[in-house]
Design brief:
- The structure holds 2 protein chains of 2 kinds.
- Chain A is an alpha+beta fold.
- Chain A is 44% helix and 14% strand.
- Chain A is built from 27 helices and 22 strands.
- The radius of gyration of chain A is 29 Å and the shape is globular.
- By secondary structure, chain B is of the alpha/beta class.
- Chain B has one domain: Rossmann fold.
- Chain B has a 9-stranded mixed sheet with strand order 4-1-5-6-13-12-11-8-9, sandwiched between helices.
- The longest helix of chain B has 17 residues.
- The chains are: A alpha+beta, B alpha/beta.
- At the A-B interface, loops of A face helix 2 and helix 3 of B.
Chain lengths: 771, 194
């Protein structure tokens, strides 16, 4: 039996006779016109057909379904309506139509009793327009919880997934497939509920309408072909590897050099290739090895699945094991780490804090105790602690420490950039050398310094854990550190536009994104130059009590750390400051290279938008080889566009642990990082128009340092989908005391970013949708 | 053979005081030659146009020419319901002459009177090229949102448009009126109705 969607509420009625996988409640529908002319007859009809109630009164406007503009859910539904209240409910629904059309209708159904779970199911993913079956549901009796904006749970599976959904959702998947059959493949959006009677779950179909997509969906076959490639890649990747410890791996978008936060989960090809070249192909492993960890050289850290970048977590965990740990122990340790992550997947953006032991801290012996419960012997654990101590000593040493060696490299970067930019080299040569130098004297030392910064923060936290520092003292110490970003706030107040842009003009939101304008390319987009800035007061001096100095000194001796108290605090301060300034330095070279690429592209009439699709390799080829540059660029762009269109159609979970996750998965509820302990209620915006941000909670999927300009706009709060506890934005928001939710996760982000008004209670780790 | 539902023009016969639906035989032949079964839709269905379509389940629609918009309200309403139905069920639509005006009107674009497009030949430029004979008093004002322009006449009128997502397309000229039907138009229609 095949059917077409009626332009009226009749669809449910006609389905009633043929639908096999669900029951459709009796329903009555009438046009607004009919209600206005003869409400008595309408009421009589309801009484005759549906009994005495209670009822549910729903909107059914063709304006909800028309292809050109979707208004799905824009209109009202009224629940639990008694017979006497029907006129009011109907009129409320009609007023939610605004200017109603003659054929707008009202749909009335009996209210379902004993509802177990209910929700909304889509046959296609509205974001990728691909045939992913998506079920958003909540357990419990309230059938409106999903439609009215509760986040609930989210299940997703590919059209031809061989892997079954959870048993309780299986009937909904079958229902979706039946509806697709009936409506000749037109994408479906439906509401469903399960009730219980005689211990059987009964599935009800409450509403069905065509799903409006922004483009024609790809076929099931195309999707299957692509997912099979990804499945095979994952199957190969998770096998044991002769050069790696640990018997399996998982792939994640957030661990370690978290691509979700830095370049986003669907970066353009140029972004992706730049990040690979500058960090994740080889630099990452050189740095870890230099700092005394295992040698992972030549292992690319970040594979991608049709353009969706993932961190190979086994590689990351291998690289956090000190080089002198013996192989057998390392093997078990990596397996232990991975098991721990799989047991608590929400830790995926906090692996360095919560899962691996990568440096010595004053509370390490206590933290290592959990290893005893996993069949590691006392000798092994002690040897591990010794080796972490040795490694940490090498980093924090005030004279020959690795930190200062790395800091010196950044001076070389600046000197060489100066020399290169004033030379007569052509732009292709400059691009090549800017990027080569960015690696050798930029991202490599930055990666090292960031590691030292991490050790510094861990040290400080261990003082809190041991009760030597209070949480407030911890925060005070952070606030006393003058970093390049706090300097920027000062300079913004102190300098005029020209001087300020000379210093900070190279920054851009999306450090690796050529389409994002630099501060100096679009100064008015980011800053309000007319607004006079108060000199921010960020000088809060910090001092230790004599008692604290003594206690810390004793602890350092007791733990055999070769550093005194003052030097330790110098190290902590240096590491944090240098982390910021080294990032600033290497992004300056990178940003310059992207400016030259843009200029080079414009010679051949190629816009930054088009260049964002090319692969970095093409610039290397043009540098090295005598070839037709325009032809090469255009071919690379064409390839990039073709592969990026596949990227846009692919949707994968944030953590892939087995081949089946490629096909079907539940979106994990992540545990977002709440910054500050404040509470805030404010309107929400995703639209980054500078003059409209005042007092708003700003939502951005992933925020890298280039979004720092946001902080000069008097925003009330910040929500990001991606970002770890120690991400740049988390640190900056904490610095400024801006109530923020960093790394809300896909599911929450989608929900929160699209509402009108939010209440964020950071202390309570709670976000409430007000409107 | 797949059914293509065609809308009809309304003619008023004063001598008998009758409104009649009418269809040019050449339009039926155009569809038959392309391998489709033409099925005319009455203009007198009123509120049950929708039910009629749900029962008929046509493979595609052809909005025919004749009558200006506003001349017969029931025809306008019938065609509007058809477009709504086609939009939510992803059904292909080809508009011819008035059909194109109707499609543009549905998408929120106005019409504008033009003088030199009645029985006159024009050269096309754009994605569709060639020489056409026009029989229209009105042109569409601009290309509607979510549509692209396929062809422009030598004097700058939009002569063909297509929807960017839906399989909807419209031509201002009458391919069926040529003595020998241009096979490229048949091919275009078949690609659209696929």
């Amino acid at each position: 039996m095949s059917m077409a969607f009626s332009t009226k509420a009749r669809t449910l009625g006609s389905l009633k006779e043929c639908l096999k996988n669900a029951i459709i409640p009796s329903s009555i529908y009438f046009s607004v016109d009919k209600w206005k002319n003869d409400p008595k007859a309408c009421l009589q009809n309801i009484n005759n057909a549906l009994g005495r109630g209670p009822y549910i009164v729903r909107s059914s406007s063709t304006r909800e379904d028309a292809h050109t503009s979707s208004n799905a859910g824009a209109f009202l539904s009224v629940l639990s309506v008694n017979h006497s209240d029907i006129p009011k409910a109907v009129n409320d629904v009609i007023s939610s139509y605004g200017d109603y059309a003659i054929d707008d209708e009202i749909l009335i159904q009996p209210m379902l009793m004993n509802v177990l779970r209910s929700g909304v199911a889509f046959s296609h993913d509205p974001q990728t327009c691909s045939p992913y079956r998506i079920i958003n549901w909540a357990e419990g009796t309230d059938t409106s919880s999903i439609t009215s904006g509760c986040s609930g749970r989210l299940w997703q599976q590919a059209a031809s997934s061989q892997y079954k959904s959870p048993v309780e959702l299986q009937p909904v998947i079958e229902l979706l497939h039946e509806l697709l059959d009936i409506f000749n493949g037109v994408p479906i959006d439906c509401e469903f509920a399960f009730t219980q009677s005689n211990r059987n779950d009964i599935l009800w179909l409450l509403q069905v309408r065509p799903l409006v997509l922004s483009e024609e969906p790809e076929s099931k076959q195309e999707q299957t072909l692509r997912l099979e490639f990804i499945q095979r890649k994952v199957e190969r990747g998770i096998q044991p590897h002769p050069f790696l410890k640990g018997s399996r791996t998982v792939y994640g978008v957030m661990p370690d050099w978290n691509p979700a936060e830095i370049i986003g989960i669907r970066p353009r090809p140029l972004s992706l290739s730049l990040y690979r070249d500058l960090v994740t192909d080889s630099i990452w492993a050189y740095q870890r090895n230099n700092y005394g960890y295992r040698n992972l050289r030549s292992f690319p850290l970040m594979p991608n699945f049709f353009g969706l970048p993932y961190i190979d977590v086994r590689l990351s965990f291998n690289s956090f094991i000190p080089a002198d740990i013996d192989d057998l122990f390392a093997d078990r340790l990596v397996d232990y780490y991975i098991d721990k992550l799989m047991a608590q997947p929400s830790l995926h953006d906090k692996v360095e804090f919560e899962i691996v032991f990568s440096c010595y801290t004053l509370d390490l012996p206590t933290r290592l105790k959990c290893l005893h419960d996993h069949s590691f012997s006392t000798e092994e654990v002690n040897a591990f602690a010794d080796s972490l101590r040795k490694l940490t000593n090498n980093v924090i040493d005030s004279k020959d420490g690795l930190l200062h060696a790395d800091a010196r490299k950044l001076k070389t970067l600046m000197a060489r950039r100066e020399k290169l930019m004033t030379s007569s080299s052509d732009s292709v040569d400059k691009i090549y050398w800017l990027l080569e130098d960015t690696k050798r004297y930029g991202t490599l030392p930055f990666a090292g310094i960031a590691r030292a910064g991490f050790i510094a923060v861990q040290m400080l936290k261990s003082l809190v854990n041991l009760g030597i520092f209070s949480c407030n003292e911890y925060n005070d110490f952070f606030n006393s550190i003058k970093t390049i970003t706090s300097q920027m706030a000062l300079d913004r107040a102190a300098f005029d536009k020209g001087t300020f842009l000379e210093r900070y003009g190279h920054l851009r939101p999306g450090t690796y994104d050529i389409t994002s304008p630099r501060y100096d390319e679009s100064p008015d987009l980011y800053f309000d130059w007319d607004c006079h800035h108060e000199m921010p007061n960020i000088e809060t001096p910090f001092s230790l009590t004599l008692q604290q100095m003594r206690e810390i000194g004793d602890l350092l001796d007791e733990h055999n750390l070769n550093i005194d108290t003052i030097s330790l605090f110098n190290f902590i301060q240096d590491a944090i400051q240098l982390r910021e300034s080294s990032k600033y330095q290497f992004t300056q070279s990178l940003s310059k290279a992207m400016v030259l690429m843009t200029e080079y592209g414009s010679k051949y009439d190629l816009s930054p938008e088009e260049l964002s699709y090319c692969d970095l390799q093409v610039f290397k080829d043009i540098h090295m080889t005598a070839i037709d540059p325009k032809h090469s660029l255009m071919r690379s762009i064409e390839n990039g566009k073709a592969s990026y269109s596949q990227t846009l159609k692919t949707s994968l979970p944030p953590l892939i642990a087995s081949p089946k996750d490629v096909w079907s998965f539940e979106w994990p509820k992540t545990s977002p990082n709440f910054i500050t302990n404040k509470q805030i209620t404010a309107p929400v915006t995703q639209d980054l128009m500078r003059d409209q941000l005042d007092g708003k909670i700003v939502c951005i999927p992933n925020a890298d340092p280039g979004y720092d300009w946001l902080f000069s706009c008097h925003i009330s709060g910040l929500i990001t989908a991606w970002g770890g506890a120690n991400s740049h934005m988390a640190i900056r928001a904490a610095e400024l005391g801006l109530p923020s939710v960093i790394g809300a996760g896909e599911l929450f982000y989608r929900r929160w970013s699209t509402v009108g008004l939010l209440h964020i209670d950071c202390a309570g780790h709670r976000v409430e949708v007000i409107q | 053979m797949k059914i293509v539902a065609i809308t009809q023009r309304i003619d008023y016969h004063q001598s008998r005081n009758e409104y009649r639906d009418a269809l040019d035989h050449r339009l039926n032949n155009f569809l038959l030659e392309s391998g489709y079964l033409p099925f005319p839709i009455p203009n007198s269905l009123g509120f049950i146009v929708d039910e009629f379509l749900c029962e008929l389940k046509p493979h595609a629609f052809l909005l025919s020419g004749g009558n200006d918009i506003g001349e017969f309200k029931i025809r306008d309403e019938t065609e509007r319901t058809i477009l709504k139905y086609a939009s939510i069920n992803h059904i292909p639509v080809l508009g011819i002459c008035r059909g194109m005006q109707m499609m543009a009107n549905f998408a929120g674009v106005g019409l504008r009177e033009v003088s030199n497009h009645i029985c006159s030949t024009h050269k096309l430029s754009g994605l569709i090229t060639g020489t056409i004979t026009c029989y229209h008093k009105y042109s569409i004002d601009s290309c509607p949102n979510d549509f692209s322009t396929l062809a422009i006449s030598d004097d700058g009128e939009i002569e063909a448009i297509k929807h960017n997502i839906l399989r909807w397309e419209s031509w201002m000229w009458h391919p069926e009126r040529d003595q020998f039907i241009n096979p490229s138009y048949i091919q275009r229609m078949k690609a659209l109705f696929l």
